[in-house]
Write a structure and sequence with these properties.
Structural class: alpha+beta
Radius of gyration: 14 Å
Distance between the termini: 17 Å
Number of strands: 6
Shape: globular
């Protein structure tokens, strides 16, 4: 059985924010957009906002960061890897660091420099 969860922002998008099925949670790409619709300018702030958005998205499915199994991260430049990795590690170490892939991409919309998607275990499936 599959369960699709709408966006926590209440905006209408042509995709679900979260899909749950087979005991797994799949998130759509999480970007560094704040609840007020703005994107932080500083890259470190973008990483922090993106991780906060991931956490809120997992909560839609009744999960948290400790339920993560896999994170795929897209960066505008691998030159930002060290800063991203520091913030990512600080945020996720206590939850347990999941498997991860980091990829440089050629372009994002607007001033965004990071996007990530994740797979987590559904707590009931634990």
């Amino acid at each position: 059985m599959r369960n699709l969860v709408n966006h926590n922002s209440g905006t209408s998008q042509p995709y679900a924010d979260v899909a749950i099925g087979g005991g797994l949670i799949f998130t759509s790409g999480q970007i560094p957009t704040s609840p007020d619709g703005t994107t932080p300018e500083a890259f470190g702030d973008q990483v922090t906002q993106t991780l906060a958005n991931l956490e809120k998205t997992l909560q839609l499915a009744g999960a948290g960061l400790s339920d993560l199994l896999k994170v795929t991260v897209y960066l505008a430049s691998l030159d930002d890897f060290a800063e991203y990795n520091k913030i990512y590690t600080e945020k996720l170490t206590d939850a347990g660091l999941p498997t991860r892939t980091t990829i440089e991409v050629s372009r994002f919309r607007g001033t965004k420099r990071i996007e990530l998607e994740a797979v987590a275990v559904a707590p009931a499936a634990g």
